[in-house]
Design goal:
The complex is a heterodimer of chains A (about 290) and B (about 550). Chain A is an all-alpha fold and about 290 residues long. Chain A has one domain: MetI-like fold. Helices cover about 75% and strands about 0% of the residues of chain A. Chain A has 14 helices and no strands. In chain A, helix 5 runs parallel beside helix 9. Chain A starts with a helix and ends with a helix. Chain B is an alpha/beta fold and about 550 residues long. Chain B has two domains: about 260 residues, P-loop containing nucleotide triphosphate hydrolases (Rossmann fold, 3-Layer(aba) Sandwich); about 240 residues, P-loop containing nucleotide triphosphate hydrolases (Rossmann fold, 3-Layer(aba) Sandwich), CATH 3.40.50. Chain B has 20 helices and 20 strands. In chain B, strands 6-7-8-3-9-10 form a six-stranded mixed beta sheet, with helices on both faces. A six-stranded mixed beta sheet of chain B has the order 16-17-18-13-19-20, sandwiched between helices. In chain B, helix 8 links the parallel strand 7 and strand 8. The chains are: A mainly alpha (about 290), B alpha/beta (about 550). At the A-B interface, helix 1, helix 10 and helix 11 of A face helix 14 and helix 16 of B.
Chain lengths: ~290, ~550
């Protein structure tokens, strides 16, 4: 009875307006992503052009967020940096979710594969994510493919475990057995009956991966292991601004605020999404 | 009987939320329970019987149901609007509740003895540890639980369903409450455990002057223990009276319908068919599970099936009856190729199919289809009925137009409207889903239908309809059917032959009538004796006499 109520398709928009947290998160996210993605249209200074005479200028109409120690416009640097972070985070989410989904499906459904796949997953989990990223960037250089792979790999185990746990419970459902009993090939059972149940938790997980990928990219940039200096990244801007913190605090402040708001909005949205989509949370809220 | 009743409910109205088809979950409920009296509330799901019980305990779900008017008096004291603290003091002490599913009502992480002791500690903090211990032991012994001294250190999962329910009853009785509310306490139990629990409750009210409000959907249980009966339908009381009178001479048409729906002594299927042309036969089938644990060197072997041999003739219905753990479900799963037997053969068309790979089995699986127990979980909630029904035939590359036509035929056969095709499973009731489930199995045009407890999750009257439907379809399509059930009454109604299973073995197999009238094995006799209310319904003697020997 209960599941019947839960599985009924829910309309999205009324829910959004009723949930202020979700609304705030989504609105903030759309605004920040919009700003970052439209950076080339919005900004009027090139983020990489040096202007030594204009170094360390405070906030003004010409330089909305001031300039850094080499006279580059901070407004365009923050937006371009944000654009890079968001693109990277999106790629990381897609790749880690796809890989994790595949591994989780296989491990959860085929009991023999389970032992092997999950031990590999355990192995990956034993490596600290940040260290792996530092090592891979040091070896492979700071290119987008290396960065994405380096950040995605440590996320895969989490996705795989999540998917596996869902698959383990769904494969015992009588409707899966009924389908098998009607001669449905295994791959089609997976596609039709098992995969759809994993989508909701995956969407939620993807938002959290996004947030963590943005953060890791910033950390790498801050440590000087990110992209080369001419490519602006939130982490490297903050790192460079550190030396001038007392004279020009805005160099650290604005990218930091942008980063914080970005992660906050993604997490707010993800949290609210989980409350809506995760049946267990929904049941708790219903009481 | 004393003059003040233990429980008196006056004109109770419980309001349902929103503007549904019904405004009240329970309306105009008036009843009394006297000391040493068992009052049964009978009704189908949605009749408001559980709501009434929850209202008495003050356990109505806060946001969903509201007690609109009426009075609840416990031993003359009005508790309708008692505060939470007052109710907490009353619960367990003056009134106690026994729930349907003892596994979820007990704390899985606490020894059962401690859970019982907790009640003494809460309601009588002055008792010393030793006194509490003694009382716990006395209670467990009172419940006729074996070796209370060791049993009280057991965790709930180590007990059987019947034992757990008896622990629950022990908890309910700890403070010798004046009123016990039992909400379907035996529905989740095997027949033999059910008989024990009923006997126990019956004995208790004799010894403790307790009044019992017993909620059930099963008229046989009513016949077994009730002093008075209250029949509820759609939130209202439709009939009330002394148990013997209501059972022997029901006044309201709904009561009559419920009583008629109880399967009893009808051998619907007639004489067994000649055994010459078996569609499937099982030879010496065995299924062995080996459990090993890290800490224990000793391996435990469990024989879920142990040398089972059976055969099923064309057009025959074979009932497989047994309690939980008897291997009946495992047998069904082996036949449908969901489980692989560890020894023995399953022969179809002269070929051993027991060890075919899944790919090879695909050639055969059209012939043998299953109807599952739980109508709520056997459909993918995300797919329309159309997608669910057409899945099987489309797997075999059948023409979509033909499949479409057959879907309509099959739905008509199970009396479901065509419009169902575009709808989702949650839009149907349990009985309707079970019909659709049968239609899904028939879509494959099988020779054999395996129904695993296919009616046990349904209300009695719906149960009767589904049984009739299965019988009609079997005759119409000349199907063979294996009907797995724990309920001998249901098996008798539908099956030509019945196989009684215990601990993985077939104890007895024979024509349905013979199993009932001349049971060959002691275990079958035990099962038959455990069926509640055999003496009831018309030929009932004085209440309680049937239990005198217990």
């Amino acid at each position: 009875m209960n599941t019947a109520v839960l599985d009924r398709p829910r309309s999205f928009w009324p829910a959004l307006t009723r949930d202020p947290l979700m609304f705030t998160g989504l609105a903030l996210l759309v605004a920040l992503v919009g700003l970052a993605m439209l950076a080339p249209l919005i900004t009027w200074h090139d983020p990489a052009t040096l202007a030594p005479r204009m170094r360390l200028k405070p906030v003004s109409l010409e330089y909305l967020l001031g300039t850094d120690s080499l006279g580059r416009d901070l407004f365009s640097r923050v937006l371009y940096g944000g654009r890079l972070s968001i693109t990277l985070a999106a790629l990381v989410s897609v790749i880690s979710v796809c890989a994790g989904l595949l591994l989780g499906l296989l491990a959860g459904y085929f009991r023999r594969l389970d032992a092997v796949v999950m031990r590999i997953i355990d192995g990956i989990m034993a490596i600290p994510g940040l260290l792996l990223a530092i090592a891979m960037v040091a070896l492979g250089g700071a290119t987008i493919p290396t960065m994405v792979t380096a950040i995605a790999i440590p996320e895969i185990p989490r996705v795989a475990r999540l998917v596996r746990s869902v698959v383990l419970s769904v494969r015992e459902e009588p409707y899966v057995e009924a389908s098998l009993g009607m001669g449905t090939p295994t791959w089609r059972v997976l596609w039709r009956h098992v995969l759809p149940s994993t989508i909701n938790p995956l969407v939620v997980q993807a938002t959290f991966i996004c947030a963590s990928a943005i953060l890791i990219e910033a950390v790498l940039g801050f440590l000087g292991l990110g992209f080369p200096p001419e490519i602006p990244s939130l982490g490297s801007i903050i790192s460079e601004g550190r030396a001038f913190f007392q004279r020009a605090p805005w160099i650290v402040l604005f990218p930091g605020v942008f980063l914080a708001l970005l992660i906050l909005s993604v997490n707010l949205f993800g949290d609210a999404l989980r409350d809506r989509l995760d049946p267990r949370m929904a049941r708790q809220r219903k009481g | 009987m004393s003059s003040t009743p233990i429980l008196e409910i006056r004109d109770l109205k419980v309001r349902l939320p929103g503007a549904g088809d019904r405004r009240y979950a329970a309306e105009g409920i008036a009843l009394t329970v006297n000391p040493r009296e068992i009052v049964c509330i009978v009704g189908e799901s949605g009749s408001g019987k559980s709501v009434t019980a929850s209202a008495v305990m003050g356990l109505l779900p806060k946001n969903a149901l509201t007690l609109e008017s009426g009075q609840i008096l416990l031993s003359g004291r009005d508790i309708t609007h008692a505060s939470l603290a007052e109710l907490r003091a009353l619960r367990g002490d003056r009134m106690a509740m026994i729930f349907q599913e003892p596994m979820t009502a007990l704390n899985p992480l606490m020894q059962v003895g401690d859970q019982i002791a907790e009640i003494f500690q809460f309601h009588g903090p002055s008792l010393s540890r030793r006194e509490v211990d003694q009382r716990v032991l006395a209670l467990l012994a009172d419940m006729r639980l074996p070796s209370p001294e060791t049993l009280r250190h057991a965790f709930p999962h180590q007990l059987s369903g019947g034992q757990r329910q008896r622990v629950m009853i022990a908890m309910a009785l700890a403070m010798e409450p004046a009123l016990i509310i039992a909400d379907e306490p035996t529905t989740a139990l095997d027949v033999t455990s059910q008989a024990q629990v009923l006997r126990l409750l019956h004995g208790l009210r004799e010894r403790h002057d307790t009044g019992i409000l017993f909620i059930t959907h099963d008229f046989d249980v009513v016949a077994e223990i009730a002093d008075r009966v209250i029949v509820m339908q759609h939130g209202r009381i439709v009939e009330t009276g002394a148990a013997d009178e209501v059972l022997a001479n029901p006044q309201h048409p709904y009561t009559r319908k419920l009583i008629d729906a109880v399967p009893r002594g009808q051998f619907g299927a007639g004489a067994p068919l000649p055994d010459s042309d078996p569609v499937i036969s099982v030879e010496n089938l065995g299924m062995r599970f080996v459990t090993s644990s890290l800490l224990r060197a000793k391996r435990r072997e469990v024989n879920a099936l142990d040398g089972v041999s059976l055969s099923l003739a064309r057009g025959e219905t074979l009932g497989i009856v047994g309690e939980s753990g008897s291997g009946k479900t495992t047998l069904g799963r082996c036949l449908a190729h969901f489980a692989r037997p560890t020894s023995g053969r399953i022969v179809m068309n002269g070929e051993d199919v027991s060890h075919l790979s899944r790919a090879a089995w695909r050639q055969w699986c059209k012939r043998i289809q299953m109807v599952f127990q739980d109508p709520y979980r056997s459909f993918n909630p995300r797919l329309t009925i159309e997608a669910t029904l057409s899945e099987g035939p489309l797997n075999y590359g059948e023409d979509p137009a033909r499949v479409q036509a057959r879907m309509r035929d099959m739905l008509a056969l199970v009396s479901i409207d065509d419009s169902a095709l575009k709808r989702y499973p949650h839009e149907f009731s349990g009985g309707q889903r079970q019909r659709i489930s049968i239609a899904r199995a028939l879509m494959m045009e099988p020779e054999i239908l395996i129904a695993d407890e296919a009616v046990s999750a349904l209300d009695v009257s719906v149960q009767a309809q589904i049984l009739d439907l299965l019988e009609r379809i079997r005759a119409q399509l000349n199907l063979s059917m294996i009907f797995i059930t724990h309920d001998l009454r249901v098996a008798a109604r539908l099956c030509h032959r019945i196989a009684v299973m215990q601990r993985g073995r077939v104890m007895e197999i024979g024509p349905a009538e013979q199993i009932f009238t001349r049971p060959g094995s002691a275990y079958t006799q035990e099962l038959l004796a455990a069926i509640p209310g055999k003496e009831g319904l018309g030929s009932r003697c004085a209440p309680g006499l049937a239990l005198a020997g217990a």
